[in-house]
Amino acid sequence: MTLSRRRLLGAGAAAVGMGALGAACGAPAATPVPDGVVPFRGEHQAGIVTPAQDRLHFVSLDVVTADRAEVADLLRRWTAAAERMTAGAETTPGGATGGNPNSPPDDTGEALGLPPAALTLTFGVGASLFAKLGLDPSLVPPALAALPPFRGDQLDPALSGGDLCVQACSDDPQVAVHAVRNLVRMGFGVTAVRWSQLGFGRTSSTSTSQATPRNLFGFKDGTHNVKAEDPDDLREQVWVAPGDGPAWLDGGTYLVARRIRMHVEIWDRTSLAEQETIIGRTKGVGAPLGGTAEFDLADYAAVDGTGEPRIAQNAHIRLASAQALGGVKILRRGYNFVDGSDGQGHLDAGLFFVAFMRDPQAQFVPMQRALADADVLMEYIEHTGSAVFACPAGLGGGGYWGQSLLEA
Amino acid sequence: MSRTTLALAGLSVAGLALTGCVSTAPAPDTGEGGPISVTASDDACELGATEAAAGTISFDITNTGSTVTEFYLYATGGRIMGEVENIGPGLSRQLIVEVPDGGVYETACKPGMVGDGIRGAFTVTGSAQRSVDTDTRLAEATAGYARYVASQVEALVPRTQEFTDAVKAGDVAGAQALYPVARTYWERIEPVAESFGDLDPRIDGRDDGEPGVEFTGFHRLERDLWQDGLQPDSAAVADRLMADITELAGRVPTVELTPLSLANGAKELLDEVATGKITGEENRYSHTDLWDFRANVDGSRGAVAALRPVIDERDPELGALLDERFAAVDALLEDYRDGDGFVLYTALTPDDVRAMSDAVDALGEPVSQVAGVVSA
Lengths: 408, 376
Description:
Shape of chain A: globular
Catalytic activity (chain A): heme b + 2 H(+) = protoporphyrin IX + Fe(2+)
Largest sheet of chain B: 5 strands, mixed
Low-confidence stretches of chain A: 1-30
Number of domains of chain A: 1
Helix content of chain A: 10-25%
Number of helices of chain B: 10
CATH topology of the largest domain in chain B: A middle domain of Talin 1
Radius of gyration of chain B: 20 Å
Low-confidence stretches of chain B: 1-31
Largest sheet of chain A: 6 strands, antiparallel
Number of domains of chain B: 2
Oligomer: heterodimer
CATH architecture of the largest domain in chain B: Up-down Bundle
Strand order of the largest sheet of chain B: 4-10-9-6-7
CATH class of the largest domain in chain B: Mainly Alpha
Subcellular location (chain A): Cell envelope
GO molecular function (chain A): ferrochelatase activity; heme binding; metal ion binding; peroxidase activity
Structural class of chain A: alpha+beta
Shape of chain B: globular
Strand content of chain B: 15-25%
Order of helices and strands of chain B: EEEEEEEEEEHHHHHHEHHHEEH
Radius of gyration of chain A: 21 Å
InterPro entries (chain A): Dimeric_a/b-barrel, Dyp_perox_C, Dyp_perox_N, Dyp_peroxidase, EfeB/EfeN, TAT_signal
Number of helices of chain A: 11
Mean pLDDT of chain B: 87
EC number (chain A): 1.11.1.-
Distance between the termini of chain B: 30 Å
Helix content of chain B: 40-55%
């Protein structure tokens, strides 16, 4: 494993929380891994239960050829470059400056000198890929079906869907952008970017080693997220099991992405009491209303002095709770975004919701339906983009992204 | 004018590179069975023979049609082995071309001087005696591209004359029709023209509103013709443009071409498409951007095609990929053809523009690899 691209300056500092990494990935590394490097290969793809990094660059791509061999060739090249980049290296040895001076460099170079920064690259395929490549319809997982419309959706087709996705997460935004940019470049002629999204702050913790972060409404988000340390939850709620669908996805998971615009200016004019009622938690410590600490269990039966439920019937945390949804949970891994402004004096801000689950139809759909129909928060937000991808299991030695599907 | 100042590396203004492998002068006796007759009508391109031995091949082209025509001989990848342009109705011209290597070539008559023309296969047998090393191939590449540039300049001058004459005559509709036609020849060789740092802004500068910079050339007349109406000084601007184009024609033969400058020029032409034409910025008043788009791609292919034997020698897969990606752009542009030209940029939907952008991105990557291959 070469670290020639980046000299690992500050790698120690970047390794905060990495002590939990082997366990988090469910596949303890056989050999010591350099600080700040998340192993690329393993039982499951990295970037799912990996402790959520600080930054995101997510890209959805369309395949622009019907030639399966061309796509397979690209996926092989992507895999090799991705493995090198997650190890802190250039896309090719000497790729940034070591080639023919009359040729454009293989690697774009902006990550030279930066640490690996816990970069993970997570790959998925969308439902639209199958027909485009003429893949056998029996390979399409039923759970990959299009999401139904939800009340209040304002989906922009240009911010939705896609044949392939790559989620790049890192503690350094430039490392994430470098990875996506280089993969996009390698894909020209085979793939074209459909949409991409930058996220600057994680909104979920995916490990008990992490503190719960806040979303742009100022509230802690993901307190009761599925965590890397919950093997039962991961098995039941996140990883696709044999028999769930076509075998190529066994050990994989589904990624649901929703670009959620948040009208922060309106929210900011809402009283603290109203904000807490809408969410169902205190803004300060994040305790469920009626409780005192963040991880106190919410008491949905409690009533106040007037007999009203202490946590409102339409509070966000009640509607989204496993209790209200028959035990359904998802592993959230979203990021805050601000994409400049909207031309009307408001920030184009929000939450890029990313969640992993075993079956979107059985998990995301009922949850989102409950929220769309009743959540007062819907007055402050609108969903502007949507996509579902199937993320195959992790790669063993020599395998490439999508191999289990293309060679099924 | 490109916003990125031109880095046609090695394209210096010195030395003469226009070697005369092709001539349209009266033919010497080739002693190889005599010239092959070509009868070019409005809808046919009939050759007296479709096979010849390697070496010097002569064609006698007679235009029996009603419109000006051209005749081309192409090698693999659209490489121009030789061409004759501007053959008026009823006139005959001769093309003498050196074809050292046997193989399958393609002839084309282009009535109206537009489009792909009427194509036909042409077989060259045997191989002329010569020793071909890489240096020879590279020298042939620059010589071949110099022929291409010369042929474009040869058309640019009269087309610009017609355009500026129409402006001076106050014929707005006529000038509007001629504007994208004249620009086609300019846009095909823009990297060469841009190597003259003083001429390029005068000929092709855009109205950026920069204080103290005189706005002249094609785009100034474009603004007059489409937006402001002809101005008191429009005729003077037209005269200035014609004088600048004439000066350009005189200076082009002094440009020293290198394989690297060809390769970089091919890439820069696609950069122009990506940043100026696909965005509709170049022709902001006339919206004839797809004409320029077509011409930039033609010019890029002209340079790549000249280098093709070297590319095939060193990286055969790259040549095939270039063919595929150029063909995809061609096919896409044909969807927007309107008569002899193209629909206006304003008629394009965001999806149309997106498809063009994808195709140019797909082509730009392999074209950017050519410089490294030919300089390796």
